[in-house]
Design goal:
76% helix, 440 residues, Growth Hormone, Chain: A, mainly alpha
């Protein structure tokens, strides 16, 4: 079922649209980082690079409510086409920023890409239950999540290559244009998904409507706990990807190629976990293993923190082959891939359940609400981590991994007690909304 979906028009165009979108967002973000680090030579490179992430996330805290309302009140496929058409113009801003080494233009492009992503997210997840049968929903989410992480990795790698000598400006500008066109073309083939509430009024208070989405989630305990589950995955994953590369550099002495491989291992692990979740579902939405997956995340984090914490400071730089031949390197790779795989096993069925529980006329706004919660959790995780790393506290990074592992064990207990029974995932699901259209 998982791979047969890629041959259907009701899923394949959306799959490739979100894949190229995720690739593009991370390409531009890392392109900006490379210009800051190597071409502009800014003294405050660290804060400027962090600001790039903030520029991308900020629109989700303001415009998620608008995104959910637009998706619920219009044909989702049509809105997606207009957004990707606008992205072609934004790509022109990014190309100009790269050509002229303008970090202002690249910040503007990244902010606009974050805005488009905010409006697009309720569409790409809200439209899945419209085009997929219920027994296909977990498999569809598995493909979207797994491929999304691979696209992020490839985008970051492509953005990093723009800082290398020998990479010409016309080549990079052409790449930006090709990716934008691929996003647009793939989106154009998404089948129509008419609105269930075409008379829905768009709220004028953008910030109020965005945070009202969280209030709406809280009114349905199932969706609130499911939204917390999705957000916990993003918090754990984002903090881990901040801590692990630093720990590897400090305790093992990893070189640039090892740092790149760390992201690869994580992306592959999430992909494996996501596909495994789709395979285990066998046409159902299975939540029975969700809490155990969070517990496994905690165990892998505890082991990663313990193994690096007991190692001394690194001396010299370790190449990738030497890293993979060392016992400490293999142990860390095992922990990281185990963490990512368990995360995929947890996040895919939980988010699939939220999609299936949401009423068709509110589904996009529910997805947008979960997106707001994800952003809030990632900001909380990043802020707390930065505070604990500050010089006046200076908690060692391996200890932070242990603390995150312990927090995951506590979260596993919470989700074990509060996630609904797997059979409840079928409640309130509208089978007519997921009917397969003739000829698709």
């Amino acid at each position: 079922m998982i791979f047969s979906l890629l041959a259907t028009r009701r899923f394949a165009p959306l799959f490739w649209s979100q894949f190229f979108s995720a690739f593009n967002e991370n390409l531009v973000r890392n392109m900006l980082a490379m210009i800051i680090l190597f071409k502009v030579g800014a003294e405050n490179a660290g804060p400027l690079v962090t600001l790039a992430l903030a520029a991308f996330i900020l629109p989700s805290l303001v415009l998620s409510g608008l995104g959910g309302q637009l998706a619920d009140s219009n044909d989702k496929a049509r809105v997606a086409r207009w957004l990707k058409l606008a992205e072609v113009g934004v790509q022109g801003v990014a190309a100009a920023g790269y050509w002229y080494n303008s970090i202002v233009a690249l910040y503007a492009a990244l902010f606009l890409l974050g805005l488009i992503a905010t409006l697009y997210t309720p569409i790409k997840y809200g439209i899945l239950p419209d085009h997929l049968k219920r027994e296909e929903l977990t498999a569809g989410n598995a493909l979207v999540e797994g491929a999304g992480f691979v696209a992020i990795l490839l985008g970051l790698a492509a953005g990093g290559l723009t800082g290398l000598e020998g990479i010409s400006r016309p080549m990079v500008v052409t790449e930006l244009g090709v990716v934008a066109v691929l996003c647009l073309v793939s989106t154009w083939f998404i089948p129509a998904a008419p609105s269930s509430v075409p008379n829905l009024r768009i709220g004028r208070n953008l910030i109020g409507s965005t945070f009202a989405l969280i209030g709406d989630l809280r009114r349905d305990r199932r969706m609130w706990v499911g939204g917390l589950g999705s957000s916990w995955f993003w918090l754990s994953g984002s903090v881990s990807l901040v801590l692990v590369p630093v720990v590897v550099k400090q305790r093992i002495g990893a070189g640039v190629e090892v740092e790149t491989a760390i992201s690869l291992f994580f992306a592959v692990g999430v992909g494996i976990g996501s596909l495994l979740a789709g395979w285990l579902s066998r046409g159902r939405i299975v939540l029975s293993h969700a809490a155990w997956s969070v517990a496994a995340m905690g165990v892998f984090l505890l082991d990663a923190g313990w193994s690096t914490g007991t190692a001394g400071a690194a001396h010299g730089t370790l190449s990738l082959p030497d890293f993979l031949r060392s016992a400490s390197g293999l142990r860390l790779v095992f922990d990281l891939m185990g963490l990512a795989c368990a995360g995929g096993l947890f996040s895919v069925p939980v988010f699939s359940a939220v999609q299936s529980w949401a009423a068709p006329e509110r589904r996009a706004r529910v997805v947008a609400g979960v997106g707001v919660l994800n952003a809030v959790f990632m900001i909380i995780g990043a802020t707390a981590t930065a505070a604990l790393q500050a010089p006046w506290i200076a908690v060692p990074n391996p200890v932070l991994l242990v603390l995150l592992g312990a927090a995951n064990l506590a979260a596993a207990v919470y989700f074990h007690r509060n996630l609904p029974d797997p059979a409840a995932a079928a409640a309130d699901y509208d089978p007519t909304a997921a009917a397969v259209r003739p000829g698709e």
